[in-house]
Write a structure and sequence with these properties.
- With 141 residues, the protein is an alpha+beta fold.
- Helices cover 17% and strands 38% of the residues.
- It has two helices and five strands, in the order βαββββα.
- A hairpin with a 2-residue loop joins strand 4 and strand 5.
- The longest helix has 16 residues.
- The radius of gyration is 16 Å and the shape is globular.
């Protein structure tokens, strides 16, 4: 993903307020917190109570996460999280995300999420309704 992109290139946006507890000994936000902020963006899509995506007896699990650190995040302030669907599979979704502070891209990530049946512990195909919702969040550039 291009670090020069803007938050406007993402159909799903959310904001995370930084806490002093998020900082490390160097005085900037700890790298583990970057992953937590990405989770916030994913949850807004996968666990929206008004539009649940998981099938009956299913849950979403991370199969792969690639996180690129581009710049520091400094406290105090906030981080804008942009999320979009990059690709769809039978039971998987590839999300593209970026973190921004003060309009500057500070991280990019690609995450593969798989719908898993909680009884069989195997992947399960996404429903047509879930596919339609996810397609509406695909990158269009």
């Amino acid at each position: 993903m291009d670090a020069q992109q803007t938050l406007d290139s993402f159909p799903c946006k959310t904001v995370e307020k930084l806490r002093y507890a998020d900082t490390d000994r160097q005085g900037h936000v700890n790298n583990a917190v970057f992953s937590t902020m990405l989770e916030t963006g994913r949850v807004e899509i996968f666990y929206d109570p008004s539009a649940p995506l998981a099938g009956p007896d299913c849950a979403f699990v991370i199969a792969n996460l690639n996180l690129n650190f581009i710049g520091e995040i400094n406290w105090p302030g906030q981080v804008d999280i942009g999320t979009r669907v990059g690709a769809l599979g039978r039971s998987s979704v590839t999300l593209e995300q970026s973190l921004f502070q003060n309009g500057r891209c500070v991280a990019t990530a690609s995450t593969v999420i798989v719908q898993m049946n909680e009884t069989t512990r195997r992947s399960q195909a996404l429903s047509e309704a879930a596919l339609a919702r996810l397609k509406s969040l695909m990158a269009t550039f």
